[in-house]
Structures are given as structure tokens and as C-alpha cells.
Amino acid sequence: MLDLPPPDTLYDALLARDPAYEGRALVGVTTTGIFCRLTCPARKPRPENCRWFADATQARAAGFRPCLRCRPIGATAEGEALVMRLMADLKDDPGRRWSEADLIGIGLDPSTVRRAFQRHFGQSFLQMARAARLRHGMRTLTKGAAMIEAQLDAGFDSASGFRTAFARLFGHPPHRMRGGGDLRADWIDTPLGGMIAIADDEALHLLEFIDRKALPEGLRKLSGLVGGRVGLGRSAVIDQVEGQLRAYFSGDLSRFSIPVHLHGTEFQRQVWRALQDIPAGQTRSYGQLAEQIAQPSATRAVARANATNRIALVVPCHRVIGADGSMTGYAGGLWRKEKLIEAERRYA
């Protein structure tokens, strides 16, 4: 992390609740002993009562306690109460059919909810709720149940609605995945949300968070690369992925040993292999990654390759940050990137 901006700049950002400083700076208030995000809605302190920190570790070491209102030790999304409330509701009842009327019924403005979720997750809450419902249908199909049973289990009244939603995610209707295939797709639960894993008997081909905006495109591309030979079900590799993810999130595994099949150009594969060489607990800038593959002038191309990675966590594209130490975008959600980097510090 580079040196913090001057105190006057930080104080102006605090008054403006500037989101550009999320993940980059925190303020400690000497009169209360509490430290906050610069976006905290609490009453603003006087400038002489402010101390500035690059991260929560520094603030705590200086004796400050985290604010209970903006939650500065969690991911950015945890600073918004309505986001955390709805995420908890979704976790408790993933099969619920949410609508804007439901949001209004619990006292929330749909447009406010939509903007908050777009800001943190790149998609609306209603889109995330639909993805959670599809999970139930997918698992029912995987067990060999009838299509109508999977449809109802996913909370869809019409078969056409279920088929359309399924096809939007996978790129083809569910019956195309009922038969055998060289690749098998299944759902894996993690502390940061559900993931889709696709593998054959030899290697992992795709691992993505289910709510990633570009997931449908990635699934369609993979289906095309393998001639549409993707079915629902498990392989030994997916079992291995699930086991290693469990150990990783428990703090017992710093490096994955899962064989991967990297679908891309030679340059992209070179970048992705370099990502796998970044140890847990460390980060790199795009420029450093370009130098690592001996192509220092290819920073932008490296950034594009990083963004097109389709094997999350195992190929750790979340470990790449801005040259100034700031959190750059992450297709799986900036809130996840924040949590992953924070959690991996224990491996450093």
C-alpha cells in the first residue's frame, strides 16, 4: 500500500462519503476510540480528532474499535444494512420467489435495493434470488428427478419459465444436460456463495460463483469448445475441488493441487499459470504480473486475460490489485475480493 493521501484530502473524502476510498483508507476518531469507513453515515468528527489508517489492522493496533454501524472490518457490502438483511433472508429461504412487491412489503425501496446490489454484486437482488432458486432445480435434476419436480423445487410455476431461466444460465435448456457428457457440472457451496464446477475425469474446466454476471457467457463458450458435451452430475475431480475449497476456507490449505484445463490462447494460459504462482497472502499489480511473464509492456493485455479467467480461486485472479494498492474490480464481486485477500493474510 502506498502512503495515504494528505489528511486534508482524506477529510474531504470523509465529508463527501467518497466510495473511491473503500478498501484504501479508514478514519479513527480519537474522541470515541472508534474507527470507520470514510463512507460511514455517522456524524462526522472534527479534523483534529481524526487519525488515518490504511487498513483495519493498523487501526486496531492503535487501540481503536470497529464501528458497529459501517462495519469496517468486513467487506464493503457489509457496510449496508439492507444488503446484509436481504442476503440473510436469501440464505435462510433460497427457494422464495421474491418480487418488488415483497421488498416494498418489508419497508424497502426497490430502486434503492437495486442500486445497492448492482454496486456490490454487479446484478440486482432479484437476479440473485432467481439464481438461488435455480440451484434447487439443478440439484433435483442431478438426482435424476422428473423435469416437473425440478421445476417446482426451483419455485417456478411454469415449465417454460424454468427452461428459460436455466438456458439463460447454461446456454441451453435443461434436457440437454440430462444425458451423459464428457464434462459434468455440479453446484458447490462455499462461505462466499454457491459455485458452479465443471470437470471431466482428469481436470477442472470451470469454477465460477453462481451470481457472476458473465457466468452464462462462460458456460456457453465452454459448451461450444467441448461440442456441447456437458451433463449434470459429479466427477472425482469435482469431489476433489469441493474438499480443497473446504480446507482453503477453513484456513488449512494455502495452495490448490487440482489439475486444471485452461481454455484460452497461449498468452492467456501464460498469464493464468503466473496467477497460480502468486502465494496466498500476497498480491501483484498488473504491471508486476506482466514483468513476471517477461512481457512488461503487456499490462493491458494481462488485465484482459485476468478478467477472462474462468477458474476462480484455483487460478487466483483475485490476488491482482491496482498499482497504487487499491482494490480493482473483480468479476466475482469486489466484496468477495476484499474478503479473500483479508482471509489470505493468515497464510502470509
From TrEMBL:
Residues 106-180 form the HTH araC/xylS-type domain. It catalyses: a 4-O-methyl-thymidine in DNA + L-cysteinyl-[protein] = a thymidine in DNA + S-methyl-L-cysteinyl-[protein]; a 6-O-methyl-2'-deoxyguanosine in DNA + L-cysteinyl-[protein] = S-methyl-L-cysteinyl-[protein] + a 2'-deoxyguanosine in DNA. Pfam families: Ada_Zn_binding, DNA_binding_1, HTH_18. It comes from Paracoccus maritimus. The active site is at residue 317. Belongs to the MGMT family. It is an enzyme of class 2 (transferase). It is found in: Cytoplasm. This is Methylated-DNA--protein-cysteine methyltransferase. InterPro entries: Ada-like_dom_sf, Ada_DNA_repair_Zn-bd, Bifunct_regulatory_prot_Ada, HTH_AraC, MethylDNA_cys_MeTrfase_AS, MethylDNA_cys_MeTrfase_DNA-bd, MethylDNA_cys_MeTrfase_DNAb, MGMT. Its main location: cytoplasm. It comes from the Bacteria. HAMAP family: OGT (MF_00772). Involved in the cellular defense against the biological effects of O6-methylguanine (O6-MeG) and O4-methylthymine (O4-MeT) in DNA. Repairs the methylated nucleobase in DNA by stoichiometrically transferring the methyl group to a cysteine residue in the enzyme. This is a suicide reaction: the enzyme is irreversibly inactivated. This enzyme catalyzes only one turnover and therefore is not strictly catalytic. According to one definition, an enzyme is a biocatalyst that acts repeatedly and over many reaction cycles.
